[in-house]
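Input set for joint prediction.
Command: fold jointly, output tokens.
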Amino acid sequence: MWKQPYTYKEGSAISIGLLVTGGLLQVAVGPLDWIVFMWPGNILALAFLLLLLAVFYALRSHVYFFRFMTTVQAAVPALATAAVLTVVMGLTRQAPEEKPAADVLGLTKMLNFWPFILVYLWNTMIVGEVAIFQICHFRRQVIPSLVCHAGLFIFIVCGTLGSADMQKLKMYCEEGKPEWRALDAYNNVVELPLAIQLNRFTIDEYPPKLMVVSMTTGLPQPQQKPQTLVIDDSYTPTELLGWKIQVLKRIDNAMPKAMAKMMKGMPEGMATRMKMDQLGMRLNEGGFVAYQGKGAATALYISATKGKQRKTGWVSSGSYLFPISGVSLGNNLEVVMPTREPMRYASNVNIYTQKDALNIPTTIEVNKPFSLGDWKIYQLSYNEQMGKWSNVSVFELVKDPWLPYTYVGLYLLIIGAILIFIQKR
Amino acid sequence: MQIWNFFLIFALAALLFWSLGAFFAWKGKKALAVGATVAGLAVFLSYVIVLWIALDRPPMRTMGETRLWYSLFLPLMGLIVYSRWNYKWLLSFSTVLAAVFITINLLKPEIHSKTMMPALQSPWFAPHVIIYMMAYALLGAAFVMAAYLLFFHHHQAPSDKEWTITDNLVYVGWAFLTLGMLSGALWAKMAWGNYWAWDPKETWAAATWLAYLVYIHYRLRKQGNMRFALWVLIVNFALLQMCWWGINYLPSAKGTSVHTYYMN
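tokens >
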């Protein structure tokens, strides 16, 4: 061992040494808190890392180790160790960011686990050093490899160091009220230089579905391969478990008649607090009527026929105001409508800025965030119990000042992968 | 879905063509082999297109649907490698592997509903999944090569040509893996505000990506222990399966992964 030239043995010994060192650090100082890399910690760390790599390169001819670190014998064990630790991370359930590790060693907080960090750092240093070497010994053939190494180095370094500066906040907006406060992962209140006023929250839903459930087990039937009917515009009477299902009447926004009657003339604040229970549903004789207020849900008047048997009744997915309603087929089987699935949900908002007193009307939806200065605003959630009648919309606000640099690395790596793909071999 | 009932016919027709292609390849009749395989691909692809239209969304959401793409890309990769390097047994292997995945789909079709949650409704969806399935198919072909060289061909050392094929499959497969992973990162930024969140699926993707880099870097020196290199590909293929569908059954990922659209 340790006779030049080094082989995979020495390369592996370095990786094992890093694991041991990491283990000792973990015991001595506890898990790494990334907060130390908050600005200006990260820029200092970056400057130090770059300086270190430059010095390594300058002293290559004098120090064998600095030559060794750009060899395959160093890289392969480093990569293998990183892969193994990443597999361990995949096999252990990771604790959430704001909670401590769930095990003694700290494996359930792998991102704060010293052995993991040191091994990834070693890999990163190799990648950076190789990139410097390839730049200084430039040949056409190394372009794909160089672009990959450089891209990966920039991506990892900026992504990791930048994560300490990233702000990720949740803002809960109620309809009609401008909101400028948000919560971080630890539920601390943060005041923002912008305010969001939710004007309207909307959900477009997929067409209603019908299925048969067993009232004893609650499971959709047939159990092995549950069958569903999609009730869209092109629906024609179809068989469901031997019963021919016909839709006789369809009301998209409906309410049990007894309830609609009671709510007539009631102040809105009171009406939306009313709830109909199972007993009330059973006493509701008039079926469903159209209702254009909050809390309405889809109701279908259906008939189910099998031979000479014929059952009719109302099927509804129910809402936060009234329970679901099904049609019994006997034998403990019932036709029901599961809650309609959201196809698209969106918030119509006005965003106000403090600095230039702007008022920006816009719509924010999933996969279509809105950018404002350093902030990106994402549609995150809503009051799921109220579904499409939710008067609350939850936004996530993200500020990541290092993102442009991280993306430079990411796009370089994409170009590198394409170059590897088209490279002549 | 009624359209799913037609799958059997299309699948059997495609498999018949692919088997014919494998047979002709074995007999050294290249033109016929390529023709039959292309015909099989056309039949299978037309089913995928019909399904796409019938579902009114890209058929890529459920496990069954991604298996469909895999069954399509495997013979495609087999065909590309065969026509480039004249490797006569490769089409047989890709056909057998495609048949395995088709059989799984016939026995366990899973529900093919039209719904797709808002997070998946993005222009990134189709390229992300297709690129990944290509990568899986290429690296599946590399696994087939490694298994063949290790277990069926072990009395003699692999030839230069065999190494060229294996290395190229891994290089191109890794390139696709990288593109799949990074397109996923860009999409995640749009959908969730973070390009990388160490979600269980992402963690396994990173592990797999690193593991293939082990092979690539190990092979840069041509005089290493070559059985070791081939074993790396065998292990990596297991990691790949974990990343693709294994995590759905992994206790550490249950309920925490945002990539579990497959399960219902």
